[in-house]
Amino acid sequence: QVQLVESGGGLVQAGGSLRLSCAVSGRTFSSYAMGWFRQAPGNDRDFVAAIRWSGGSTYYADSVKGRFTISGDNARKTVYLQMNSLKPDDTGVYYCAAVYGFGVFDLLDPRAYNYWGQGTQVTVSS
Predict the structure, then answer these.
(1) Does pLDDT of 28 surpass 70?
(2) Can you give the three-state secondary structure of the chain, one letter per residue?
């Protein structure tokens, strides 16, 4: 059974920074890609960023481009999300997710992901 565990959330003032981490355990071979999503109260789970390990391609939601950076180490099964210049609109529960398998995946679509973490709360005060 694959487990994803996020950490690094918290309360920060607008303009501040946080770094989220996600560690994967329970599977011997590496994932195809990993991503971060967030969910504010009453909203859907929205795409934030993703990284495809083969080639290292990264993808970002327009709302976070230039402020957030996804990185990681597939061999160590860890992915990070560096969040700078945070805004109150960035508030939400942030989820880490992993894609396992072969094929073509829309990494912006949460349905592409096989496994999810429990989420970590990020609150940005104005």
Answers:
(1) no
(2) CCEEEEECCEEEECCCCEEEEEEEECCCCCCCEEEEEEECCCCCCEEEEEEECCCCEEEECCCCCCCEEEEEECCCCEEEEEECCCCHHHCEEEEEEEECCCCCCCCCCHHHCCEECCCEEEEEEC
